[in-house]
């Protein structure tokens, strides 16, 4: 019992010593600690104010502009959707004027698609590359379209890199499409081994896709 009581006393003394050191530290650096807490509070309030009084209203404005541009995009009026008309500013200006908003980010993808449809492939690549999306389907399609733009420019090495990036997102619907595009591009580059890898990936991992229905033909072609 005596040993237990001694042990408990030692523990209490250690705790008291630690508390004393903490109190001494707080007393010594009290001003600095108060200043640090004040800075943290100010930063949090600044972020909240920025989001509530700047970003949210800007996003609402951007959404209104997007709705008008998207209507023209759906009607295949790509030039007007991109550049705007008298009553709205168009995707290109939404990207620059509302760059910090979700709509500004989405507008970059739409602008890139419009430029692709208009045959302006350098601008298509520029805007598509600005898009940062979380949706697996849409972001995969955007990356793949960059590859298509490089194909149109005759730059197959760059194109196949983007086709493989799109395929690597492992989208059940789109990955097989871009693997087959990658395989065909590898063939055009004289890289039969790489093409075989892409086609085999379709056969083994996307066997239910439409691209898998005739994949044996492509595999046989590059194995010759």
Characterization of this structure:
It is a single chain. This protein is mostly helical and 224 residues long. It has helices spanning 2-28, 30-74, 78-83, 90-97, 102-117, 121-128, 136-152, 156-167, 175-188, 192-205, 215-223. The model has no long low-confidence stretch (mean pLDDT 84). The chain folds into two domains: 1-132, Serine Threonine Protein Phosphatase 5, Tetratricopeptide repeat, CATH 1.25.40; 140-224, Tetratricopeptide repeat domain (Serine Threonine Protein Phosphatase 5, Tetratricopeptide repeat), CATH 1.25.40.10. The N and C termini lie far apart (88 Å). It contains eleven helices and no strands. Helices cover 79% and strands 0% of the residues. It is flat, with a radius of gyration of 29 Å.
In short:
The protein is mainly α. The chain is 79% helix and 0% strand. It folds into two domains: 1-132, Serine Threonine Protein Phosphatase 5, Tetratricopeptide repeat (Alpha Horseshoe); 140-224, Tetratricopeptide repeat domain (Serine Threonine Protein Phosphatase 5, Tetratricopeptide repeat), CATH 1.25.40.
The helix content is over 70%
| Terminal residue distance | 88 Å
Structural class: mainly alpha
| C-alpha geometry | flat
| Low-confidence parts | none
**Average predicted confidence as pLDDT:** 84
Give the biggest sheet.
Answer: none
What's the order of the H and E elements?
HHHHHHHHHHH
Second CATH tier, the architecture of the largest domain: Alpha Horseshoe
According to CATH, the fold-level topology of the largest domain is Serine Threonine Protein Phosphatase 5, Tetratricopeptide repeat
Rg from Cα: 29 Å
- What count of helical segments does DSSP give? 11
What's the structural domain tally?
2
Which oligomeric state applies? single chain
CATH class of the largest domain: Mainly Alpha
Number of strand elements: 0
Strand content: under 5%
């Amino acid at each position: 019992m005596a040993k237990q009581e001694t042990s408990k006393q030692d523990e209490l003394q250690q705790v008291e010593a630690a508390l004393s050191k903490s109190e001494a530290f707080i007393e010594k650096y009290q001003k600095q600690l108060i200043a640090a807490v004040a800075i943290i509070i100010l930063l949090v309030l600044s972020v909240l104010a920025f989001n509530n009084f700047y970003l949210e209203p800007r996003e609402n404005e951007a959404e209104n502009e997007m709705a008008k541009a998207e209507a023209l995009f759906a009607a295949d009026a790509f030039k007007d959707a991109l550049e705007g008309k008298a009553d709205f500013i168009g995707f290109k200006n939404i990207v620059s004027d509302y760059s910090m908003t979700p709509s500004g980010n989405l507008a970059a993808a739409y602008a890139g698609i419009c430029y692709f449809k208009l045959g302006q492939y350098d601008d298509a690549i520029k805007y598509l590359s600005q898009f940062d999306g979380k949706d697996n389907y849409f972001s995969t399609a955007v990356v793949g379209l960059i590859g298509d733009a490089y194909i149109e420019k005759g730059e197959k090495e760059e194109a196949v890199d983007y086709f493989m990036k799109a395929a690597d997102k492992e989208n059940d619907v789109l990955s097989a499409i871009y693997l087959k595009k990658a395989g065909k591009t590898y063939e055009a580059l004289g890289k039969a081994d790489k093409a075989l890898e892409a086609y085999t990936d379709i056969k083994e991992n996307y066997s239910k896709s439409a691209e898998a229905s005739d994949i044996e033909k492509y595999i046989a072609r590059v194995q010759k």
